[in-house]
Amino acid sequence: MTEQTFATQFSNRDFFIRRWEQEHASFVDVLKALPAGRLDYRPHAASRSAAELVALLVSLVRGCVELCEKGGGSYNSALRFHPKEGTTTLDEMIAAYEKHHHELAEKLDRLNDATWNRPAWLTRGEQEIILRDSIGGLMWIALFDAVHHRGQLSTYIRPMGGKVPSIYGPSGDAPSRQ
Prior knowledge:
single chain
């Protein structure tokens, strides 16, 4: 098999930033496609609700901001789910997602490759180490996890009464993204 090279070679960090930015519009489109009055929808009692999945996506991007700020070492994800009390509207969660996305963009622009490659680990609580990797490795895992949960959330949209947006190509409800 012949290896192709392109005029521009990216570092792992640069490729992550490019891929993360390219995924952003699809994340926002899926969030905006959710019927706001149906966030309690869950396809099965053991499944997360739509609200819990949105809160998880917000929490994931916020966690990435915190990981970049800390610059390595122990990192507790502290994933947040939809609160049981008080109100958090879909618009508020989308605004928080956008805010954290822009904060992460700034942090990633300032992060150099040496910091990107520093050892880091994800913990649960104070002690239990769940994952060991580099900052960059944990960022890739977070992106893949977010893409997975975005796909899960996209399967909720039509049963909730919404229209599924284009993600990587056309959906039954929307043409391909240009």
